[in-house]
Amino acid sequence: MIPELGQIALALALCLALAQALLGLVGAARAQTVWMAATRPAARGQLAFVAIAFALLTYSFIANDFSVVYVESNSNSALPLHYRIAGVWGGHEGSMLLWILMLSVWTFGVTLFSRQLPLEMVARVLGVMGLVSTGFLLFVLFTSNPFLRRFPAAADGRDLNPLLQDPGMVMHPPMLYMGYVGFSIAFSFAVAALLSGRLDAAWARWSRPWTTAAWCFLTVGIALGSGWAYYELGWGGWWFWDPVENASFMPWLTGTALIHSLAVTEKRGAFRSWTVLLAILAFALSLLGTFLVRSGVLTSVHAFATDPTRGIFILALLVIVIGGSLLLYVWRAPKIGLGGSFEPLSRESFLLANNVIFASAAGSVLLGTLYPLALDASGLGKISVGPPYFETVFVPLMAPALFLMGVGPLARWKQASLPDLASRLRWALAAAVLAALALPFAMGRWGVMVALGLLLAAWVAASGAVQIWEKVRNAAGAASAWTRLSGVPRATWGMLLAHFGVAVFVVGVTMVKGYESEKDVRMEPGDTVEIGGYTFRFDGVRDVNGPNYVAGRAQIPVTRNGKPVTTLYPEKRIYRVQNQPMTEAAIDTGFTRDLYVSLGEAVSDSAWVVRVHHKPFIDWIWGGCLLMALGGALAASDRRYRLAAKRQPEHYAAAAAR
Amino acid sequence: MKPRHKRIAMIVGGLAALSAAGVFVLAAFRENLVFFFTPTQVEAKEAPQGRAFRIGGMVVPGSVKRQADGVTVEFVVTDTAKNVPVVYKGILPDLFREGKGVVTQGKLGGDGVFYASEVLAKHDENYMPPAAADAIKKAQSINEKATHTLVESGK
Question: Which of B2, B32, B37 to mutate to test the interface with A (most CBs of A within 10 A)?
């Protein structure tokens, strides 16, 4: 009974999504106030029904209802409760339902925080979101129904993929989807603005906090995925340039360009058509990411061709959403106008350079991800594009971006002066050069790439410090430093924090790339291996039993200069239901280094192959991502986004006239 | 300069920067493409010397040998028609098995041995590079054939 109720709830949600779309779009076109006002309750009702469906599916998982095909293929009665709940989004159908739930949650958010917006705008935005939701609900109901039953019921489930039985994987998909789906708001605002034909700076201000919030979730989601790959795949890498990862990285790059370009559009009215295009592209790439990961096209182009229902459906959705919005763009964009003018040396042009760089980066990832697929699909041979390509492309692209990140925030809008910038930044430059020259020696070895990375990281951090210092010094009156600083808007603090996060991230990447070391060794009990100044002793492997696996667990005490540091217990697990072996690495996390040990295989009765890693500063990579996301959250919560938008048109008209 | 000219100059500059980035990305792309070859193609000397590429197929049952250091592994990859001996130093993936599909990346030595820098085995439906998927599929059909022959020769 429960799964059938879930299905009914989904069908009702579909009706409401359709109503929301039609009432919003048609109501706005015909200026029907009552219709437009009905979009809010429709959106809230939709959330209620989607949430009911999701809760019922979760219940089926908790209750071990193996008559439901989806539960049977993604859970098992021996699976611990928290992984049974996480199993709801462990497979295709459930994660699509999660996608829809996220979309309803965001839509609900728009209905709550849109009181200062004109009703017509709200109706159009909710209408577009309703259309997207309709598409995905149809997709779930017709091709990926999680509530399908099997008869007779299975005795037990086939278990959740062991790789997904991990706390990081519990949080990763919801965060990632919050990010992906969040860009639907920027998209809906852009399409609504195109429809209304009024693409003023007001819409940029409205969509800014939403876009930034979505970007924060995406950042955290990607960081969680990377952290998961680091400790769960067992090989110590944190980013593999795998198509699955690239699928989430492309919307992030475009989203990063978008939040910067929105800043220009809001403050100066410039880049308007470009910003709209970016908003469409960011969501398009989110959809593409969903398509790539969920259609099976990555696993095998040919498997996709043999059972293409789902893939074709998402592809059609992709074509309708992207194609439709791009057509609308081509039709409306000429009316948008150009906005405020600016000099070649100004904050606008620095942000333009940022956009050019991030768009190129997104394009290069798109090329490296889709070209091999296209080649394979058309039978022209098989190629792979690995980390060397992406690294070759990203270092030269991101180095100037980091340099500009130090200059841009200090440059004046409209027209900046080079001598002025140089004199304000001379101490930051000196500090950066000093760091680049001295720090690598402290690590024991000087290298060009390490020096470059540290130079850029220190440059970004020092330039942030200069900005804070100028705010303290330049504030008018005799106010104390604290009052001066508390007058700085949250959005500025957010920007500073996010940029500081980038610096921390760059330090992490640079140090890991430059100084990491690893060894694969055959070890008998009592053998020791030394790496990065730490001594690892292998004390043998004994058998342990988990709830749904058996494992060989090694005991490896670590010492440094004879003093004990920690004891690591890496495991080699066999998950009983799927009979799948898994390497469970043991990690000692530290502020300046991780010690990472994974078990290879037994080569004799007592000897094992063991891989030990020393990874300096690796946690700074995820720490930096977290700071970026926190900075974004701070910026999105700025008060001025919640103020009534009435002043906006005059402000904008003044900006455009300048 | 008139504002209009300035704007045109900036657009031209932006486009120039974009196309420079484009040229650079494409060059890097060509430079770092990794092609996929079957053991038959390797035998026919179609694969490049001194440049990394991938081979895929099935690990010949009984061919996996560990050298005395314990971490260097030798095995033979076959597409049932031809064999390529592979040497790899390091830990093999969890799902590396004799008789199962494998994709490995590395360089071909002058001695005809493939020196692998990376070994990929099927890990998870979401965690598999496209080339591996196909090779595994191929290798699995090969696998079936091979077991047939094994069973028949065992009779």
Answer: B32
Q: Write the pLDDT tens digit of every residue in A150-188.
A: 888 888 888 888 888 888 778 888 999 999 999 999 999
Indicate the residue of B32, B92, B126 with minimum beta-carbon distance to A392.
B32
CA dihedral A192, A135, A47, A250 (to 10 degrees): -70
- CA-based radius of gyration for chain A: 27
3-state SS class at B102: strand
Residues A191-203 as b/e (b if ≥16 CB within 10 A, e otherwise) read bbbbbbebbbbbb
Tokens, residue A122: 């709200």
Q: Return the exposure string of A21-39: e unless at least 16 CB atoms fall within 10 Å of the residue's CB, then b.
A: bbbbbebbeeeeeebbebb
Distance CA A204, CA A186 (A): 9
Q: In CATH, which of 3.40.1190.20, 2.40.50.140, 2.60.120.10, 1.10.10.10 is domain B34-148?
A: 2.40.50.140
What integer best gives the mean pLDDT of chain A? 89
Q: What is the pLDDT of residue A643?
A: 67
What is the DSSP annotation of A403-470?
A: HHHHHGGGSPSS---HHHHHHHHHHHHHHHHHHHHHHHHHHT---HHHHHHHHHHHHHHHHHHHHHHH
Q: Whole-angstrom Cα distance, residue A246 to residue A259?
A: 20
Q: Which residues of A522-547 are buried (b: 16+ CB within 10 A; e: fewer)?
A: bbeeeeebebbebebbbebbeeeebe
Which tokens in the block code for residue A35?
């219709």
- Using a CB-CB distance cutoff of 8 angstroms, which residues of chain B are in contact with residue A394? none
Question: Alpha carbon of A375 to those of A245, A325, A367, A386: distances in Å?
Answer: 20, 28, 11, 16
Which of the two residues, A312 and A628, has the higher pLDDT score?
A628
Ordered by start, the domain boundaries in chain B are 1-33, 34-148
Cβ atoms A452, A436 nearer than 8 A: yes
In this prediction, residue B82 carries a pLDDT of 83
Assess whether pLDDT exceeds 90 at residue B51: no
Q: Do B33 and A381 touch (CB under 8 A)?
A: no
- Chain A: residue whose CA lies nearest to B70: A522
Query: Does residue A580 sit at the B interface (CB-CB below 8 Å)?
Result: yes
Contact with chain B for residue A349, Cβ under 8 A:
yes
A382 interfacial to chain B (CB closer than 8 Å): yes
pLDDT band at A109 (very low <50, low <70, confident <90, very high): very high
Total length of chain B: 155
What residues of A are in contact with residue B14 (Cβ under 8 Å)? 352, 356
- Window 103-162 of A: residues touching B by CB (8 A cutoff) are 161
pLDDT digits (tens, 9 = 90+) for A504-520: 999 999 999 999 999 99
Q: Which residues contact A546 (CB under 8 A, 6 or more apart)?
A: A573
**Nearest Cα to Cα of residue A591 among A564, A568, A618, A561:** A618
- For the segment A409-431, the average pLDDT, to the nearest whole number, is 90
Q: Is the pLDDT of residue A338 over 60?
A: yes
pLDDT tens-digit readout, A200-221: 778 888 899 999 999 999 999 9
Q: What is the pLDDT of residues A310-333, one digit of tens each?
A: 778 888 888 999 999 999 999 988
pLDDT value of residue A656: 41
Task: Among A233, A343, A389, select the one facing B28 at the smallest CB separation.
Answer: A389
> Is the ipTM beyond the 0.95 threshold?
no
Determine the Cα–Cα distance for residues A495 and A518; give it in Å rounded to an integer. 37
pLDDT digits (tens, 9 = 90+) for A524-552: 999 999 998 999 999 999 999 988 899 99
Question: Across residues A26-42, what is the average pLDDT?
Answer: 93
- A379 Cβ under 8 Å from any chain B Cβ: no
Tell me which residue of A106, A118, A119, A94 sits closest to A39, measured CA to CA.
A119
User: Hey, are the CB atoms on A363 and B22 less than 8 Å from each other?
Assistant: yes
